[in-house]
Write a structure and sequence with these properties.
This protein is an all-alpha fold. The chain has one domain. Helices cover 71% and strands 2% of the residues.
Amino acid sequence: MYWYRAEKGRIQWPSPIALTIGFIANFFDALGIGCFATITAAWRYFGLVRDEHIPGSLNAGVTIPAILEGLIYIAVIEVDMVTLVSMIAAAVVGAWLGADVVSGWSRRKIQIGLGTALLITAGFGLASKLGYLPGSGDLLGFTGVKLAIAVAINCMLGALTTLGIGFFAPCMIAVYLLGLDAKAAFPIMMGSVSFLGPVASVPFIRKGAYDMKAALSLTLGGVPGVLLAAFLVKSLPLETVRWGVLVIVVYTGLMTLRAARTRTA
């Protein structure tokens, strides 16, 4: 498997801090708070992953927890199957196209992309918190022009996910604008990420543009985090958590862009 690495005859396992990050981030991911921005912030704070390895490590590491999330939400929440399958397929195509490009980027280009992606994610979150974005509708699926628009957006988001930008917030905003029911957004979001993960991971793994221990920490910590959130948690102060995440994401995005500014290659 991609996460095994032997150095000096020994398997290198993740640290307790890395496993904790994987658990907490995927726990809140299963509750609808995207994990990419949170993980990126934590990794940079503790110096666990080189910036140029962050996108690949994110996509490889969250694949199994994301598949688990997708299966759970698809099974328990009603959504139009044509819409679900079409949007998932579009996200996979976008990820396949985007990962092949991003996996070959330099460290500075990754830093610029990550910093920008984090600030965009924070902008979506702030606009939502301040009420500048619309609420959901009552549709369980799309047809015609709305379906075509939704598919195109999901394809673009699949490509952006390979850079490390969170999928949930922009996808949720897009389907709300098109009138989708709030609950129906979850199987689409979770299902898209679960299927695009394996496709997005392959180019990074093939080119060695990821950190194996970091990816393993997300997988091992993420699976129990998802299960705990999905089956045991009944209520949490999620609004307070979202504000905290927003502040962390803005700070990390600015620091990442600052780091890129000091580099010339």
